[in-house]
Design goal:
By secondary structure, the chain is α/β, with parallel strands linked by helices. Helices cover 54% and strands 13% of the residues. It has a six-stranded mixed beta sheet, sandwiched between helices. It has a three-stranded antiparallel beta sheet with strand order 7-8-9, with no helix packed on it. The termini are far apart.
């Protein structure tokens, strides 16, 4: 470089660059937060309970929104599930909320299969996510995840224990979803009765081996509050979207002639505890547990059914190609076996049909011969009757001819009927005239 150029460069003013903050990877959480906020979140709630127990009211109260819900009926022939998705926004956070509610649960006379539609729905959402995950071209970042993150099981406050349907359904659901039982309409029982009901419900759940969702206590920040909340299960809740004036302020409450039940008053119900645990403290843990525990269990079982495994008995590395080829050969052999069974079944069915047709043909031939004999006998009888009728007709004709002959003779003999009558009259009146004449002469 020339001396003149060095002199000009040295004469320029030096610029100083000031850092905007600490340079390091400790900004990674902020980056994750910004990315998650931009993408938004999804949260799916399954509400299981009898019709009219207050599922819709609790959802409206929980999110302080009046969702559109169809009027449920007590006359459903089977258990139905209705899913509604809503886009909510709080501050700058977007939440895609899906609320799934049961209709007709517990209304049927035969309740043995009432839990089956619920299990099928949960498995169907896992299946949809697994299909998207196994695609060659997948887009999980934009995929609408419909897997159930939390199941609120509504328990009726009437009674002193759980129903058999409640125990069976919760036992079937505890391995598929995060299960939290709630006592609905808790304002219908007294405080002492409610405490006894909680103890009774928890003892029955423990004795029957029902695994409830336990709020995590590993994180020191929330360990204390979650440990305390685990002792309050099941939550006794009351829902209401009506604003009632209590004192000098408006609160969410249910108004009765004897007073009001405040929804957000922890002395009246556990609604605040439930909202705190679901929305503020443990929502992300519910999402993680759904993916890491329940979905992984379903995914593992599904892949094992398909023949996939991590290691073989010889501890060799897992080969997707070998597994695919083995599964394909197994599938082809199974297909050939079923094809052979169907062919043999078809042959047997054809033989049975041919035997049935021959038997029917034989029966029809025997019936035809029988009808033929009957026809011949009837024909013979008719011929005999015809001959008898012909003989009777001939005899009748002969009698008719004889009668006509006699009639002709009778007509010829009666050609002068008046003359015969006059002669006959004169003949009978002659003696009278003679007698009259003889009498006169005597006189």
């Amino acid at each position: 470089m020339a001396d003149s150029e060095l002199h000009d460069f040295a004469g320029e003013e030096k610029r100083s660059l000031e850092l905007g903050g600490h340079v390091g990877f400790d900004s990674l959480p902020d980056q994750l937060v910004s990315k998650c906020v931009a993408q938004g979140f999804c949260f799916n709630i399954l509400c299981v309970g009898e019709t009219g127990i207050g599922k819709s009211t609790l959802m409206n109260t929980l999110f302080n929104t009046k969702f559109e819900n169809e009027e449920a009926s007590h006359y459903e022939q089977e258990v139905l599930l209705r899913a509604h998705t809503y886009d909510l926004k709080e501050s700058n956070v977007n939440l895609k909320l899906t609320v799934v509610q049961t209709q007709g649960f517990g209304d049927q006379i035969n309740r043995e299969a009432s839990f089956k539609p619920i299990l099928d729905y949960v498995d169907a959402q896992f299946e949809v996510y697994l299909e998207e995950e196994l695609k060659i071209r997948r887009s999980l970042s934009n995929f609408h995840d419909t897997r159930i993150h939390i199941c609120l099981y509504f328990i009726a406050p009437n009674g002193h224990s759980l129903k058999s349907l409640d125990l069976v359904t919760m036992k079937k659901l505890d391995s598929k979803v995060n299960l939290i039982p709630v006592i609905a309409k808790a304002d219908t029982v007294s405080r002492s009765e409610l405490d006894k009901l909680k103890i009774k419900i928890m003892s029955e759940l423990v004795s029957n081996g029902v695994q409830l969702y336990q709020f995590p206590t590993e994180d020191e920040a929330v360990a204390e509050i979650n440990s305390a909340m685990n002792t309050h299960l099941p939550f006794a809740v009351v829902g209401s979207v009506d604003d009632v004036k209590v004192g000098n302020k408006m609160v969410k409450a249910r108004l009765y002639p004897w007073g009001s039940v405040q929804v957000e008053n922890e002395n009246h119900c556990d609604f605040v505890k439930l909202r705190e645990m679901l929305l503020r403290v443990n929502m992300e843990d519910l999402r993680d547990q759904t993916h890491a525990r329940h979905y992984e269990l379903y995914r593992r079982c599904k892949l094992e059914e398909m023949g996939f495994k991590d290691v073989d008995p010889e501890s060799k590395s897992f080969s997707l190609q070998e597994t695919y080829e083995a599964k394909r050969k197994e599938f082809i052999l199974e297909l050939k076996r079923k094809e052979e069974e169907m062919r043999q079944m078809f042959v047997n069915k054809v033989k049975e049909t041919e035997a049935e047709l021959k038997e029917k043909e034989k029966e029809l031939h025997e019936r035809f011969e029988h009808l033929k004999r009957v026809h011949q006998e009837e024909k013979k009888n008719l011929e005999e009757k015809r001959r008898e009728l012909e003989e009777e007709m001939n005899a009748f004709n002969r009698r008719k001819v004889a009668a006509d002959t006699l009639m002709g003779q009778a007509l010829q003999g009666s050609q002068n009927p008046f003359k015969k009558d006059k002669d006959k009259k004169n003949f009978f009146s002659l003696p009278s005239a003679c007698s009259l004449t003889s009498g006169r002469n005597m006189n």
